[in-house]
Amino acid sequence: MNYFQEGFVWLNDPLNWTNPGGLFDRLQEHLLISLWAVLLGCAIGWPLGIWLGHRGRGGGAVLTFANLTLAIPTLALLTILPLTPLGFGQPPVVVALAVFAVPPLLANAYTGLRQIDPETREAARGMGLSGGQLLRRVELPLSVPYLAAGLRTAAVQVVATAALAAFVNGGGLGEIISAGFGIGMSNGGGGQIVAGGIVVALLALLVEAVLAGVQRLVTPAALRTDRHRRPTAAAPAG
Amino acid sequence: MSFLSGVPVPAWPLAAPGELAAPADDGPGNPWFSWRYVHDNAGEILSALQFHAGLTARAVIIALIVALPLAVVSYWWRPLTGPILALSGVLYTIPSLALLALVAPAVGTTSDTSVLIALVLYALLVLTRNSLAGLTQVPAEVRDAAAGMGYGRLGRLWRIELPLALPGILTGLRLATVSTVALVTVGSLIGKGGLGEMILGGFRNNFYKAEIMTGTLLCVGLALVLDLALAGVGRLLTPWTRERSS
């Protein structure tokens, strides 16, 4: 418990928040990296998943891809990408995180379009809707809850994983933790390590709670169920 | 760019020893894969692999021992299902690095116990959720029939429900194993990352690509091998699912 007290003492010092490289700076970096990674993931995962779901094929490939990325350690991509032409700094971190954001977005978009009752689809066809109209007016509105569920999983995962960027000096809140290890556990670094852990954990829980609310808001009342929708590719921050 | 070229390439004349390697365009002197590296460091690589596999096995086995009773308890007393899944869901949301940062100072960084604790907590949710899903999808008629044949609660669980829940449990076991293999690398934070040590070590050691890539490939390979092995075990244990699907 000693370290926890030190952690709270550390969090109570305003300078630790406002210093250059303090919590506010790191939080801003963290959120910016996460935002770009999620946007990039959406730009790739959603169109692909919607297209595959609309066409109704490629389900096996989606699942294989999602399971395959589960086996790749985040740390590996974070260390490999800076050595490619992407260069050092934040771009490789954003790309690495986006790679892990794509599977939940893709899998949920695909599932969202595939779970629509075939009779609904046939009725729309019977009313004379073309493929594009079917997609825009019927399939997309009905799959919004799944898209939101995918966004939530992907965003939480990205925010959680962004902490690992500190391993390669990529910025973000993980830097607080690694700086604590740099100071040394016995020299007062323990408190900073615990404080960093608390902040990162709270941020992930906060994002989860906010996006769960968003998911509930965009889900039409008729489609709401109490059971949690966990997508196929929910992975802990590895 | 000699991506995965199997042949050790002779050192580039410009990359003199001691010179800081330019990361993006230093191709020939710093190949992505080199058999010479693997050959020269076979001992270290093997011990890292062994540590990695051992830690994964311990974490998954402990998690299974904890998760199965939890799943059974929440299967028997439905009101407990919500709290148990919610609690493990919260644990699952907490980033691995944060969890490790919270556990490590309290437990100590000299042993791998803190990494083990974090890994077990993560594997717990997947295993509990899937085991519970497996148990709840046992058809009601089957349960009724078993009760009618005179099975008690425990006997029914052991002889009827757990075997029928095996596919769900095995799916959870495979997911948990694969993600645990990837997660062990985060243990590098306290120097207990197994193959993650190689990945991070290569990055810190002047961006030694061969070391990074060897660690990555072994990590992914270990996950795939364990996944296939568990899939094989699953096929052997549940022959009825094969007949149904064919």
Automatic annotation (TrEMBL), chain A:
* Span of domain ABC transmembrane type-1: 27-211
Q: Which UniProt keywords apply?
A: Membrane, Transmembrane, Transmembrane helix, Transport
Q: Which biological process, per GO, is one annotated for this protein?
A: transmembrane transport
Q: Which chain positions lie within coiled-coil regions?
A: none
The record gives the membrane topology as:
Multi-pass membrane protein
Please list every transmembrane segment annotated in the UniProt record, as residue ranges: 33-53, 60-81, 93-113, 146-168, 193-214
Q: Does the keyword NADP apply?
A: no
InterPro entries from the UniProt entry: ABC_transp_perm/SBD, MetI-like, MetI-like_sf
| Subcellular location as annotated | Cell membrane; Membrane
Q: What is stated as this protein's family in its record? A: Belongs to the binding-protein-dependent transport system permease family.
In Swiss-Prot or TrEMBL terms, this protein is called: ABC transmembrane type-1 domain-containing protein
Native organism is: Actinoplanes auranticolor
Automatic annotation (TrEMBL), chain B:
Specify the protein name.
Answer: Glycine/betaine ABC transporter permease
According to its UniProt record, where is this protein mainly located?
Answer: membrane
The record's comment on protein family reads: Belongs to the binding-protein-dependent transport system permease family.
Record PROSITE patterns: ABC_TM1
Q: Which GO terms describe its biological process?
A: glycine betaine transport; transmembrane transport
Q: Which GO terms describe its cellular component?
A: plasma membrane
Localization of this protein: Cell membrane; Membrane
Q: Which UniProt keywords apply?
A: Membrane, Transmembrane, Transmembrane helix, Transport
Pfam families reported for this sequence = BPD_transp_1 (PF00528)
Record-annotated ABC transmembrane type-1 domain positions: 49-230
Q: What is the lineage of its organism?
A: Bacteria, Bacillati, Actinomycetota, Actinomycetes, Micromonosporales
**Domain of life of the organism encoding this protein:** Bacteria
Q: Which residues cross the membrane?
A: 55-77, 83-103, 115-132, 164-191, 212-237
What is the topology of this protein in the membrane according to its UniProt annotation?
Answer: Multi-pass membrane protein
Which SUPFAM superfamilies does this UniProt record tie to the protein? MetI-like
